[in-house]
Amino acid sequence: MTASDAGTAPWTGRLTGGSGISVLVATAIVVADMIGVGVFTSLGFQVKDIPSGFSILALWTVGGIVALCGVFSYSELGAMFPRSSGEYNFLGRAYHPAFGFLAGWVSATVGFAAPVALAAMAFGEYAKSVMPEVSPIPLAIGVVWLVSIVQLAGVRHSSTFQLISTILKVVLIVAFLVAGFVVGTPQPISFAPHAGDLAHIVSAPFAIGLVFVMYSFSGWNAATYIIGEMNTPQQSLPRALLAGTLIVLVLYVALNAVFLYATPISALAGQLDVASVAGSAIFGGLGGRIVGAMICVGLISSISAMMWIGPRVMMTMGEDIPALHVFSKRSLRGAPAYAILFQLVVANLLLFTRSFEAVLDFIQFSLLFCSFFTVAGVIKLRITDPDLPRPYRAWGYPFTPLIFLIVTASMMYYLLTERPVQSLSGMLVMLSGLLIYAVFRRRPVAAATSHNRE
Asked: Per-residue pLDDT tens for 394-447?
């Protein structure tokens, strides 16, 4: 046993002894990963074509219901195969390890690093409203390093930091909601259904709006990346995914309601920064700074969640593939240090080169593709392996998986038609993982043999 391996053993003992991640912390990770900047920027483009309070709230409610349909399927797979790493684990078990590697390759390299860089850059931009003299790049790099240091300090410190930052995030959002409804000037908008709402709901703008709403709900599967570190994962995972998604659904609907309640639609239409517009309408001149500070605090918890769960994919891949073994090693405090440092380096490179937006364009289709086949894997396993133990069975099966598959397929179609070059390029990047998989699976044989000889 090497010195690094020796550092892994005490953590394993503590983990199996029942000191893993609690349902509360796992729920906080789900909430933190889901609530980024999407809900604060989408409404301005939605009200241009859907000028109806009821239809807008229905749009966000439908997005939440589709996310819940995904939650039920992922919970079944997570309870069946309670191992960290999300789609890498699920696709490998439901189909073939090579398929799992494709998903893991995207997630471990840029799938989390690019959103981390984007959230950090957003943090820097919003922080300018509070500290206008500071450039956003140093602020973005600083927050990523700060969160990474917390993650390197160990799971106990990560859990405390994640819980506190997420609770603060939710408290600030609730305070904003209360202020909006109490202090804000009511606008002439109704949230009750009207005759014209059905036409809005079945319209093309509603379908396009749903695509971007679903992006705002992405992250509902966050806890599946840390299943192996959870207490009683068969029970804890479904609870964390369900509770986190329901909390975000309520907050999203309420936020859009307060934006519409306190701000004229004419002021919101076409605006990217609807939260600042609404903040100015509610709080006056200080509104922009208040909202900017609120979003900054929220982004810290989002970055923390992604810097926590992302390295777990590389860690699990390192457990399976000897060529990546270094990433599987944990510190004495349970942190996959090399995997965290790897994601930190990639996120910093993306920030320095300002290429994270291009990377996000490339990987959007690939991530949807992996989610689609993960949920399809629930149906496949029900047919091909009906006798496998299922501690949790997807609620509403087969309708809930089918709803998720239909909506996800429509989103992939939208990306293929609207961004064909980026979508197909992303698929090529993912498929290149097959070559890497073949090389990694072939190389370790000799390495393992020589190690055994020693």
From this structure: 999 999 999 999 999 999 999 899 889 988 888 888 888 888 888 887 654 443
Tally Cβ neighbours within 10 Å of residue 433: 21
Q: Which residues are CB-contacts of 297 (< 8 A; sequence separation ≥ 6)? A: 165, 168, 169, 172
**H or E element, residue 27:** helix 23-34
Query: Distance between CA 393 and CA 389 in Å, rounded?
Result: 10
- Under 8 Å between Cβ of 187 and 261: yes
Query: What residues contact residue 318 under an 8 Å CB cut-off, 6+ apart?
Result: 324, 325, 326, 327, 328, 329, 339
Rg (CA), the chain: 22
CA atoms of 237 and 256, how far apart (whole Å) = 29
* Longest CA–CA separation in the chain, Å: 79
- Global pTM reads 0.90
Q: Are 60 and 245 in contact (CB under 8 A)?
A: no
Other Cβ atoms less than 10 A from the Cβ of 133: the count is 5
The DSSP string of 373-436 is HHHHHHHHHHHH-TTS--SS--TTTTHHHHHHHHHHHHHHHHHHHHSHHHHHHHHHHHHHHHHH
Question: What average pLDDT does the segment 337-365 reach?
Answer: 90
Would you give the end-to-end CA distance of the chain in angstroms?
12
pLDDT average, residue stretch 138-142: 94
For residue 285, the model assigns a pLDDT of 78
Contact 312, 339 (CB under 8 A): yes
Q: Percentage of the chain surpassing pLDDT 70?
A: 93
Question: What does the pLDDT read at residue 29?
Answer: 97
Report the pLDDT value the prediction gives residue 6, as an integer from 0 to 100.
34
Domains of the chain with bracketed CATH? 3-443 (1.20.1740.10)
> Residue 424 and residue 416: Cα distance in Å, rounded?
8
String of DSSP letters for 190-238 = --S--TTHHHHHTSHHHHHHHHHHHHHHTTTTGGGGGGGGBSSHHHHHH
- pLDDT computed for residue 10 by the predictor: 35
Residue 74: phi, psi to the nearest 5?
-65, -35
